[in-house]
Amino acid sequence: MFTKKIADIGLFYCAFIWGSTFVVTKYALNSVDPSAMVAIRFFVSALALLPFIIGKKDFFAHAKEAFVLSFFLASLYLTQTAGLLYTTASNSGFITGLFIIFIPVFLFVFKKEKPGLVELMASLVAIAGMWFLTGGISRINRGDILTLIAAMSYSAHLIFTDKYVKSGYDITKLAFHQFWMVGAIASVSVFLTGKTFHVSNLNGWLVILFLAFFPTLSAFFIQMNAQKYSDPFKVGIIFTLEPVFAAAFAWTVGGEDFLAVKAFGGFLIFSAMLINEFGKLKQKEIKKSGGMNEEYNG
């Protein structure tokens, strides 16, 4: 019970710290290329973890699984960070929150698990929220589209993370290899686009170091550990707070204008996330009840 409470606190920390990153990342993008920021951020995180695994046996254990995670994580951060060049921090936070809606889609694609009526209803509410948030198809911008891709990558990353951490993989090794691989993928993006790794001022470096040690190193490590002990429903509910925190930071310390129509769109997306999670809980209860009835009838 104590371990589960600690896990829940850790997940709240993750949601809070990830929510804060949208504003600080957007602020630092005037001093460093988006792909370079991702590369440096993840290389620093990997370097910080290196002393904890350098003496372990089978140094490259879980490298295959880490590559799968790094592919989705790199896709998440490269598109999300680049998207912040064109969209607001609050928009980015709410659109990223759509990751929960995409989880049933990926489960259907990979495991042929059909989404239920509640999940379909949540998707419709989320689409309506996206409409109000962005101003409709005619007003949606490049940053919104990139962030939508980030949300899809986020959901795939969560699915595979859940699979690996509950299969007994060494989390420290999994995190380390995942981090340096993301750094390598982002570096390739820097070279292919002809950009540089130059950070033009101290504030840019401070933001990168903050991103490396808090939302990356500590939060992802805590997330992977917490997912071993927390119920998936509870994880989803807690993570719905990330876009709420993102909007709160954007509209206060970020200095973004509060627009009622966008706030309403964000509220619909948040509501869709909750509807989706409670739908999962209902399905779980139905399955449990069905199993008990079969056992009783038997």
How are the secondary structure elements laid out?
Blueprint: H1 2-28, H2 34-53, H3 63-83, H4 89-96, H5 99-111, H6 117-134, H7 142-165, H8 171-192, H9 202-226, H10 232-239, H11 241-251, H12 260-297
Helix pairs in contact: 1-4, 1-9, 1-10, 1-11, 2-3, 2-8, 2-9, 3-7, 3-8, 4-7, 4-11, 5-7, 6-12, 10-12
Detailed description of the structure:
Helices cover 79% and strands 0% of the residues. The chain has 298 residues and is an all-alpha fold. The chain has one domain (2-297). Helix 1 runs parallel beside helix 11 and helix 5 (99-111) crosses helix 7. It is globular and about 50 Å long. The two termini are 33 Å apart. The relative contact order is 0.22. The mean pLDDT is 86.
- Overall pLDDT, averaged? 86
Q: Radius of gyration, Cα only, in angstroms? A: 19 Å
What separation lies between the terminal Cα atoms? Answer: 33 Å
Question: Major sheet: size, sense and barrel closure?
Answer: none
Given as residue ranges, the uncertain stretches (5+ residues, pLDDT < 50) are: none
Q: What gross morphology would you assign?
A: globular
Question: What is the number of domains?
Answer: 1
Fraction in beta strands:
under 5%
Total strands: the figure is: 0
Order of helices and strands: HHHHHHHHHHHH
Task: Specify the number of helices.
Answer: 12
Q: How much helical structure, as a percent, in the residues?
A: over 70%
| Derived structural class | mainly alpha
